[in-house]
Structures are given as C-alpha cells and as structure tokens.
Amino acid sequence: MIIFDPERGEYVDTETGEVIEDRVVDLGPEWRVYDQELQRTGSPLTLTVHDHGLSTTIGYEKVKDRVKLMKMRKLQRNVRVSNRDRKLVTFLTMLNSEASKLGLPDHVRETAAFLLRKVVEKGLERRIDPLVLVIAVLYYSCQINNVPLYLQEFKKRFGISSSDFWKVMRRIKDAIPFNSIED
After folding, report:
1. Which of 46, 111, 124, 176 could form a disulfide with 171 if both were Cys (CB 3.0 to 4.6 A apart)?
2. Average pLDDT in the 99-121 region?
C-alpha cells in the first residue's frame, strides 16, 4: 500500500518502506484553523494564468456611486495585464481552451504552461502560428508526463502540417531541453 506523508512530502510503500517519490509539492489550497472553523486562505498558485492566480477583481456591489465603480473596474482591467504580458495571456488562454477540448489533466496543463512561458520568455514565439505553438507545447507536455496521445491525433484534430509542427518543436526544445524539465 502506498501512502503520502505530507510532513516530508513523500510517497512511501508501507510494505517495503521504500520511498517512491520525494520532494512532492502539494499545490492544493491551504487551510488554516482559526476559532475551530476551517477558513480558506486562497486558491493554489497555477502557471496556467499569466499572474499565477494572484490577482483580484473588483466585483459588483450595491454602491451609491456606480460610475466610480465602473471606472475603477476599467482601470483595474487595464493595469492587471502589462503590455509585456499580453501575448502570454493570449497564448495561455488558447492553451487552456485546447487542453480542455483534449481533456488533459491539470499536471499536463501546468507543464505545458511552464514550457510556453519559457518559449515566450526567450522570444522564440515570433513568426509562429500561435495555434501550432500551443499544440506543440501540449504534445511535448503529454510526452513528458507519459500521457498516451500521439502526434497523428494532434495533427489530424487541429489540421497542422508536419513541417510547421517540427519547426515549432525545435524552438521549444531550444527554449528548454527535455532533461532540464525532469530535474
């Protein structure tokens, strides 16, 4: 039987005592106990959102000055995403959409978002079809995480050519080699 030891961050086989995996990070929500009640302290961090999920939004309330509220919401929308991050926001939105269509698990999305961030960070996304970039990152993430989706499925489903796909894959591998992801 395999159990998770949250104190050490390890998966341990209880029969043999072997540590299956160590240094596991729990990305779930944090819970704190105050006054014998469970209170949530925030949602988990995620790479699939440009600001890692740390932003807040101004909501609608019954206020006297509705015009002021609308101006504040507009200002927040404009300030929330910097000019430098606009392209990343577009790519991450596409990535989340396509990953949902494929029914990919969260850990594959997180890996794909990490890869996509590295490609954009190094400026290797220029003169590439955004859809091909997102599909290539998702395919590479599936390979890394041993998710059994094949290249033919991706190419057929999204109608991308082999030459475009492999050109983008070279850029992804230039941005981050496969070996450095596993470390």
Report:
1. 124
2. 89
